[in-house]
Amino acid sequence: MISHVSQVGVYVNDQDAALAFYTEKLGFEVRSLREGPGMKWIEVAPPSGQTTISLASKDFPVGDEAKIGVYTDIAFETQDIHGLYETYRQRGVKFTNEPELQPYGKWFAAFLDQDGNQFFVFQPVE
């Protein structure tokens, strides 16, 4: 039986720039960083997260440049969306949607990484 989602991939133009963005601006932790001939494997995650994000190069064997700068289908959750918004904004993260309460009962915001990949963040309403 499957227990959880282990990892998801996000394609990036420059893995080193992506690593800096995800760790310095988003506050993620490096969970794996391995290099081999012509390849680098990087996984990051929020400090309490179980699922990692692999920062995949467009040059990776199954890479696809068309997957860079797109909506990722990845949504994060926070208990303080307004605080997260202010912290990330001060660190230079670009938001495409400021926090707003949605009719389906969650606070919602959307932001971009250094390559324009879009992510959502939600906060449940108590």
UniProtKB/TrEMBL annotation:
Alphabetically ordered keywords of this record: Dioxygenase, Metal-binding, Oxidoreductase
One Pfam entry name: Glyoxalase
Single GO term (MF): dioxygenase activity
Transmembrane segments: none
InterPro entries assigned to the protein according to its UniProt record, in alphabetical order: Glyas_Bleomycin-R_OHBP_Dase (IPR029068), Glyas_Fos-R_dOase_dom (IPR004360), Glyoxalase_1_CS (IPR018146), VOC_core (IPR037523)
Domain VOC: 4-124
The protein's name in its UniProt record: Glyoxalase/bleomycin resistance protein/dioxygenase
Protein source organism: Salinispora tropica (strain ATCC BAA-916 / DSM 44818 / JCM 13857 / NBRC 105044 / CNB-440)
